[in-house]
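$ ./design --mode recover --in tokens.txt
reading tokens...
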């Protein structure tokens, strides 16, 4: 649909993108009102959390004229396209659960994305009330705990509040596979979340319920939470090999010390990373994930 140009006398306003759905965005205006907006032009690289300059085109619609500079941009990508997750966030919260089984590799990939943008990372282990499943889940997360990543254990149904202190002062984005209890967590932490989602759905298209790509909620005066849809994969095609190496925290003491400057850490002689894996200083499974991500077989 062609969106008509704003009248010349319409002022440019600043707003915050609090929901993204396809090419349509809900922008929160300084007065707290919500305005559905479309990007100008064909290509859209607006993300939830973006601060934008907009102009009204009518009472209930606007156009995004510009995206203001971002402090961070979290996205995933595959060979074909990239999917923006959120902008201007300073903490990534990865939600896993004692059941269903979670993917260690997905956690690793999400952590790498956070490291590459210098965003804090936190892992939440949900459904800890399932006592028989807890030891195995803890065991699988131990590798991340050893690297110094914070892990919060809770049950979203009963103790979602345990997470609140960890979110204070941050704009956090929640990611996780489907079925991990992410929406239960959001609904417990943000009492008005369901109502806000309904309001956004109505603003998007006259009441048809639409699943948004991401939604921003205000937790309190100092904290915000962006919920993103369930992820089954987390492509990192936008990072080159050096960036990926640097994003593995445990590689940092070794990088640059191999005999060959462009060492791929496969079978090259005098590779310090291989030696560190053999010595048990680097987790072998994380090293395997590194090779899968950079596409060099070990």
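writing sequence...
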């Amino acid at each position: 649909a062609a969106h008509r140009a704003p009248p010349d006398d319409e002022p440019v306003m600043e707003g915050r993108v609090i929901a993204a759905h396809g090419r349509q965005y809900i922008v929160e205006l300084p007065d707290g009102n919500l305005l559905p907006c479309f990007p100008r032009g064909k290509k859209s690289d607006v993300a939830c959390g973006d601060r934008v300059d907009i102009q009204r085109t009518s009472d209930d619609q606007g156009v995004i004229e510009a995206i203001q500079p971002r402090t961070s941009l979290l996205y995933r990508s595959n060979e074909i396209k990239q999917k923006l997750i959120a902008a201007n966030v300073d903490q990534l919260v990865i939600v896993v659960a004692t059941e269903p089984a979670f993917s260690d590799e997905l956690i690793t990939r999400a952590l790498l994305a956070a490291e590459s943008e210098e965003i804090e990372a936190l892992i939440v282990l949900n459904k800890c009330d399932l006592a028989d499943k807890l030891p195995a889940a803890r065991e699988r997360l131990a590798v991340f705990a050893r690297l110094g990543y914070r892990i919060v254990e809770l049950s979203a149904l009963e103790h979602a509040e345990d997470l609140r202190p960890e979110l204070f002062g941050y704009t956090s984005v929640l990611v996780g596979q489907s079925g991990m209890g992410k929406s239960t967590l959001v609904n417990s932490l943000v009492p008005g979340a369901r109502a806000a989602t309904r309001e956004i759905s109505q603003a998007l298209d006259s009441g048809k319920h639409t699943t948004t790509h991401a939604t921003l909620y205000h937790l309190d005066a100092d904290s915000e939470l962006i919920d993103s849809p369930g992820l089954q994969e987390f492509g990192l095609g936008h990072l080159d090999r050096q960036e990926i190496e640097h994003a593995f925290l445990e590689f940092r003491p070794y990088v640059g010390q191999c005999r060959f400057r462009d060492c791929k850490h496969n079978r090259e002689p005098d590779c310090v990373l291989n030696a560190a894996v053999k010595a048990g200083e680097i987790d072998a499974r994380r090293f395997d994930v590194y090779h899968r991500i950079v596409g060099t077989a070990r």
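exit 0
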